[in-house]
Automatic annotation (TrEMBL), chain B:
PANTHER family: BLR5612 PROTEIN, SLL1039 PROTEIN
Species of the source: Rubellimicrobium aerolatum
Taxon lineage: Bacteria, Pseudomonadati, Pseudomonadota, Alphaproteobacteria, Rhodobacterales
Any Pfam family hit: Alpha-E
DUF403 domain ranges (all copies): 1-308
Protein name as annotated: Alpha-E domain-containing protein
Length: 537, 312
């Protein structure tokens, strides 16, 4: 386990490592226990507020180019990184006023398209836009190739892990994972024991959240193995960029992302129950119009050319799950559900659910329908399991993990606990099953009194906590009135799994903390998104 | 297609049609109110045509111009206000987003954004004509995107059923509320209608020009009744609307292989129109005829909901 890092410089993906003094300590802080639906999850509020920020001077780029003077910022950074060369060349020739206009135009496009997320409990601003920044995040072919290998390895391991956990539990027998991590875990779904999902796939769609700290330093923050959201933003961001800056795509050879819906449908269809005859009938199950991610549900159904259904459109008939059409009930083969496990089937899970389909799970167990992702996959992205992921990858693939985990101290281990207690001021301490940033300590931004109070809580129930070091998250410039300015980002690539293989869309969703110095990329707290480019060789 | 989707399309287009009809009624109402000493009577008549006079009185009591305008445009207590129906249309569009082209969706969404902004505060009398024009233009915009980009399949047919059931209902209500103008003395051969009154009726369905093309300057109750009830060329007449309903039930029957009871009801209505004469209708009582028609249209809509499994 590596020592906690107290980075004094931040890696900017356009301009390289800062060489000045920066206090940009960041807190990697996924929240796998948070609601999997809704706007992409992000470090919750409170975890990072008040983090000191240094690298906030205006970056080189159009501002410096137009004024003809060197800014202090230019002295601080190493120099333009190669993936951004063609982009910077274009940017230098651009008029900032035009770009500002384009930024506003982009917002109009999003508003018109209706790419919104719903905010619960507010009648007026019930639908909000996620801000979009026009400066793309650019990854080279080499960077992506390595990431993609790491992602595929991790996703294969997750699927093997899920199959094992719901069957023989070899990993527990081998002593690589304590039995209580499964048995006493709320994310473990006993109903799934012994169930064979069609095609052997558990996580058909995965979103791996990554952060970067340097040239080749990527960390997995969390594995979203339930119902990852946000892919519609990835697609619409690209559409918008193509519409606004077609000339950029003539200068840069950017790998397309638009195949995602087609690949998704193919991938889902390939997982249809064996008894399926002809072209499998696929449907997307949504909680409904007022769900925060409703736009995405309808977007994906639309782009795949399949029906968007709610629980009350479905019923169990003759051993199948069927949807009510204008011409009677029609059986479904594959259900891409965007409803949590608990709400899938009131007969088998939460009896109070009005969203689900009574008896759905019985049909699933009998092999009459594919549910994507399979129920019970939450055990793979649980915060407590996360710390075992390097072992899980090794156990099922026989290889060393390509992507790093953020080092995690499990406080139930006495030596780890003693280390954590000695280093509280440098660490982030989280509740194992907590979510939304509650009950956590961010050492670097807490005062002595807060740390002392937390120490008592930690000592009272060590097994309830894990600790992680602070990381210096990379930045990517955003466009502001004053020119380019560095902001922290994360990345969620989208991965499809079927018996035919693993498909990773080049790029993914980049979320960016638009507030100066902030690490909160969550859309409900001032976070925005960017188009993410992976360049061809 | 999902039954829920058919339902959403049907209501989306009923609501869009309603927003446009209300705007038209208000424009005609404002115009006639300006020429009258008892202007508020005219607003009461408009409210009656939108079938909201009762709820209005319960909420506001006396009919005044300003309250009536506010009520029909954006009063939160009126589920049929323009703002409310545009919002409902847009919500239904979100519900059936997968059945719409991007252009239709964006047009509806943009309409909602524009009107929500425009109707966020009380509209004064001076701004009213411009606001009503925007409402009608937005409706035309959606219809244009719809006609120009949608596949002619069952999706299209359910949208059209909604449009024409709403339109038939609206024209029938207008005839009913204004029947006192058309009856009984007006029926007397040769009598000419009060200029302003007939103009209101025709304006309310944007048909002044069309009427003139058909009948010249000769404005008679009989002709107006013929025009709005039986003329199959007039796009807001009852016969035209029923004809479109029959067509769309027919296309659905072609696609689904069966004509359900609602389709048969529409066909029966059409047969009735084919053998009807305007003199006969006026003799046996316009009010009774229109009341009967409103019932038939409501039954037909309810039957379609059952036939095509709109609900569980």
């Amino acid at each position: 386990m590596i020592a906690p890092m107290r980075m004094t410089t931040t890696f900017d993906e356009m301009w390289g490592r800062g060489t000045g003094q920066s206090q940009d300590a960041a807190v990697p802080n996924g929240s796998p226990d948070g609601p999997p639906e809704g706007p992409p999850e992000a470090p919750p509020e409170g975890s990072v507020n008040g983090t000191p920020h240094g690298a906030d001077s205006v970056l080189p780029g159009i501002q410096a180019a137009r004024s003809g003077r060197m800014t202090q910022a230019q002295v601080m950074y190493q120099g333009l990184r190669p993936p951004y060369a063609a982009f910077d060349d274009w940017l230098t020739g651009e008029n900032p006023a035009r770009l500002l206009r384009k930024q506003h135009e982009a917002e109009e496009v999003f508003r018109l398209t209706g790419i919104t997320f719903n905010v619960y409990g507010r009648a007026e601003a019930a639908e909000r836009l996620i801000p979009f920044d026009i400066i793309p995040r650019i990854l080279s072919a080499r960077e992506w190739a390595r990431l993609a290998r790491g992602i595929e390895q991790r996703v294969r391991a997750i699927n093997a892990f899920l199959h094992d956990i719901y069957h023989r539990q070899e990993i527990v027998r081998a002593g690589r994972l304590p039995a209580e991590m499964i048995a006493r875990n709320a994310a473990f779904l006993p109903q799934m024991i012994g169930v064979e999902p069609p095609g052997g796939v558990y996580t058909h769609i995965v979103g791996i959240d990554l952060v970067r700290t340097g040239e080749d330093e990527f960390f997995v923050l969390e594995d979203n193995a339930r119902t990852p959201s946000g892919v519609s933003y990835m697609l619409e961001n690209r559409e918008t960029m193509l519409q606004m800056f077609p000339e950029l795509f003539a200068r840069n050879r950017v790998r397309p992302v638009s195949n995602y819906p087609l690949n998704l449908r193919r991938s889902l269809a390939a997982c249809a129950p064996r008894a399926t005859k002809g072209d499998p009938v696929v449907a997307v199950l949504t909680p409904g119009l007022y769900n925060s991610a409703y736009y995405e549900h309808s977007f994906l159904a639309d782009k795949m050319g399949v029906e968007l259904v709610e629980g009350h459109d479905l019923r169990v008939m003759d051993g199948r799950v069927a949807m009510r059409t204008t011409q009677g009930y029609k059986p479904i083969d594959v259900l891409y559900r965007r409803v949590d496990d608990d709400f899938l089937d009131p007969l088998n899970f939460n009896a109070d659910s009005g969203l689900g389909v009574p008896g759905l799970f019985d049909i699933y167990r009998a092999g009459g329908i594919t549910i994507a992702n399979a129920p019970g996959t939450g055990i793979a992205d649980d915060k407590a399991i996360y710390s075992y992921m390097p072992d899980i990858v090794r156990f099922y693939t026989g290889e060393a993990p390509i992507l790093q985990n953020v080092p995690t101290w499990r406080c139930n281990d006495p030596s780890a606990l003693s280390y954590v207690l000695d280093n509280l001021h440098d660490l982030v301490v989280k509740e194992v099953h907590g979510s939304g940033g509650y009950g956590m300590l961010v050492g670097p931004t807490s005062n002595k009194k807060e740390i002392a109070a937390f120490r008592d809580k930690l000592l009272a129930n060590p097994a309830n906590y894990i600790a992680q070091p602070t990381l210096a998250l990379s930045t990517v410039p955003i466009f502001t009135r004053a020119g380019l300015a560095p902001r922290h980002v994360d990345l969620r690539p989208y991965v499809l799994v079927s018996p035919d293989g693993v498909t990773i869309t080049p790029g993914g969703l980049t979320r960016v903390a638009l507030k100066k110095g902030s690490l909160v990329v969550n859309s409900s707290q001032g976070g925005g998104t960017k188009d993410t480019w992976v360049l061809e060789e | 297609m999902l039954g829920k989707t058919a339902n959403g399309l049907y209501w989306m287009f009923r609501y869009l049609e309603r927003s446009e009809n209300t705007a038209r009624l208000m424009a005609a109402g404002q115009r006639i109110a300006l020429t009258r000493s008892h202007a508020d009577d005219e607003w009461a008549s408009v409210l009656e045509t939108t079938a909201t006079l009762g709820p209005y009185r319960a909420r506001h009591g006396e009919v005044t111009r300003d309250n009536a305008i506010h009520w029909m445009l954006c009063d939160r207590d009126n589920a049929s206000s323009v703002l409310a129906v545009v919002e409902s249309a847009r919500n239904n569009a979100r519900l059936v987003r997968t059945a719409l082209t991007r252009e239709v969706w964006e047009s509806v969404n943009e309409s909602w954004m524009i009107l929500r902004n425009l109707l966020s505060q009380r509209v004064g009398e001076r701004e009213l004509p411009a606001v009503l024009t925007v409402i009608r233009n937005r409706s035309a915009h959606v219809r244009g995107a719809f006609a120009g980009t949608m596949l002619r399949n069952d999706i299209y047919n359910f949208a059209r059923l909604g449009t024409f059931i709403e339109r038939a209902d609206n024209t029938a209500r207008l005839l009913d509320v204004k029947s006192y103008v058309l009856l009984p003395s007006a029926h007397a051969v040769g009598s000419s209608l009060d200029n302003v009154q007939w103009e209101t009726i025709l304006r309310s369905v944007s048909a002044e020009g069309a009427y003139r093309m058909t009948y010249g300057q000769d404005v008679r109750a009989r002709n107006i009744a013929q025009f709005l009830i039986l003329d199959r060329r007039m796009p807001r007449s009852l016969a035209f609307s029923v004809g479109k309903l029959v067509d769309n039930f027919g296309f659905l029957a072609d696609a689904y292989g069966t004509l359900p009871p609602s389709g048969k009801k529409a066909a029966a209505l059409q047969t009735g129109f084919a053998s009807a004469s305007v003199d006969g209708l006026l003799d046996s009582g316009l009010h009774e005829f229109v009341q009967g028609f409103l019932r038939d249209i409501a039954d037909l809509g309810a039957q379609a909901e059952v036939d095509y499994r709109f609900y569980d």
